[in-house]
């Protein structure tokens, strides 16, 4: 989250996605200009009624909304974000830029799509596609097979690759809220969501500086500031998070549930916690893949490109090397 000078214009991709809206307590009214080659411009109105809450977090809440035009009922998810946090006015331009950029057609299979955004004096609203199966966390009551884990992982890697190639870092990748399920297993189809704290790296730099970002259990140690506090970090933080996600998918737990255990591992006082991977008979390739994603030094971790080429990912079946 940044602070944009009042006189600084919105990026075109953000300005063009802004919707004309009249926001009420339990519904929103949108106004669209509608015209064709044979008709003059006219105003089309859509009314979206707030249906139910889907989730909430530190910065806002997500609701499902319903629009019934008499012939078809449409559903969408709307994220409501407060403009003022802890008494400070916050600018979400970069976050909106990420959402709108990755709603482009060529990224549609990797990211939850946005239909646009609108605002009031106190809130920003982001309209998104509604996915009835919810987030991945809801489907992890039991560990999944390695074959299913690979299918999910390959899709996440592709999305992270697009983000990193375009100069964005997610910084809060996790199964809950941020990895959404389009089609449940065994033929998984997932999308990356929630760019609430994603950042675009400066054109002349590949590093980020804001620490204390992310979720314990999934966030990289440098993003949480538990190693090298004050130092910048890179998109390698997303690769650590991916490792924790894969570990969670395969075992039902995270490798480092608290900062103390992560610190102990990163400083060499303890080894990588492979006991749960052994318990669920995760193959040698699978274990090495996770460890290569979660190396203490960010520059040593797999990138989205090298992760996609790792032996665990390129194996088409379960014949990868056994422990």
Please give a quick description of this structure.
The strands form four sheets. The protein has a seven-stranded antiparallel beta sheet, with helices on one face. Helices cover about 30% and strands about 25% of the residues.
Produce the secondary structure layout.
Layout lengths: L11 H4 L5 E3 L3 E8 L7 E15 L3 E9 L4 E10 L1 E2 L2 E2 L3 H9 L12 E6 L3 E7 L16 H20 L2 E2 L5 H4 E5 L5 E4 L6 E2 L20 H4 L11 H16 L7 H8 L8 H5 L4 H10 L10 H5 L2 H4 L9
Antiparallel strand pairs: 1-2, 2-3, 3-4, 4-5, 5-9, 6-7, 8-9, 10-13, 11-12
Helix pairs in contact: 3-6, 6-9
Description of the structure:
This protein has 323 residues and is of the alpha+beta class. It has two domains: 18-33 and 40-129, Phosphorylase Kinase, domain 1, CATH 3.30.200.20; 134-200 and 211-313, Transferase(Phosphotransferase), domain 1 (Orthogonal Bundle). The protein is built from eleven helices and 13 strands. The protein has helices spanning 12-15, 93-101, 146-165, 175-178, 221-224, 236-251, 259-266, 275-279, 284-293, 304-308, 311-314, and strands at residues 21-23, 27-34, 42-56, 60-68, 73-82, 84-85, 88-89, 114-119, 123-129, 168-169, 179-183, 189-192, 199-200. The protein has a seven-stranded antiparallel sheet, covered by helices on one side. The chain has a two-stranded antiparallel sheet with strand order 6-7. A two-stranded antiparallel ribbon has the order 10-13. A hairpin with a 2-residue loop joins strand 6 (84-85) and strand 7. Helix 6 packs antiparallel against helix 9. The longest helix has 20 residues, at 146-165. The protein starts with 11 loop residues before the first helix and ends in a 9-residue tail after the last helix. Mean pLDDT is 88; it is low at 1-5 and 201-212.
């Amino acid at each position: 989250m940044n602070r944009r000078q009042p006189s600084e214009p919105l990026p075109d991709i953000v300005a063009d996605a802004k919707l004309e809206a009249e926001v009420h307590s339990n519904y929103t009214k949108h106004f669209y200009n509608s015209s064709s080659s044979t008709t003059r411009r006219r105003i089309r109105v859509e009314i979206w009624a707030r249906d139910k809450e889907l989730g909430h977090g530190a910065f806002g809440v997500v609701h499902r909304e319903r629009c019934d035009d008499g012939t078809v009922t449409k559903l969408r998810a709307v994220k409501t974000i407060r403009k003022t946090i802890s008494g400070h006015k916050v600018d979400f331009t970069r976050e909106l830029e990420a959402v709108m950029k990755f709603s482009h057609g060529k990224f549609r299979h990797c990211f939850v799509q946005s239909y646009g955004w609108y605002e009031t004096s106190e809130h920003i609203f982001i309209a998104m596609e509604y996915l009835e199966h919810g987030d991945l966390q809801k489907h992890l009551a039991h560990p999944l097979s390695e074959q299913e884990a690979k299918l999910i992982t390959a899709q996440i890697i592709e999305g992270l690759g697009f983000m990193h190639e375009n100069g964005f870092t997610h910084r809060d990748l996790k199964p809950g809220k941020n990895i959404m399920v389009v089609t449940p297993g065994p033929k998984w189809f997932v999308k990356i969501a929630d760019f609430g704290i994603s950042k675009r790296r400066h054109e002349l730099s590949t590093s980020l500086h804001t620490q204390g970002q992310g979720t314990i259990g999934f966030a990289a140690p440098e993003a949480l500031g538990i190693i090298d506090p004050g130092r910048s970090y890179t998109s390698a933080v997303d690769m650590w998070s991916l490792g924790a996600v894969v570990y969670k998918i395969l075992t039902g737990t995270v490798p480092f549930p608290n900062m103390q255990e992560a610190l102990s591992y990163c400083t060499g006082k303890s080894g990588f916690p492979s006991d749960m991977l052994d318990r669920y008979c995760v193959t040698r390739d699978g274990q090495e893949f996770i460890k290569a994603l979660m190396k203490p030094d960010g520059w040593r971790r797999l990138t989205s490109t090298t992760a996609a080429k790792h032996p665990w990912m390129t194996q088409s079946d379960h014949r990868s090397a056994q422990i």
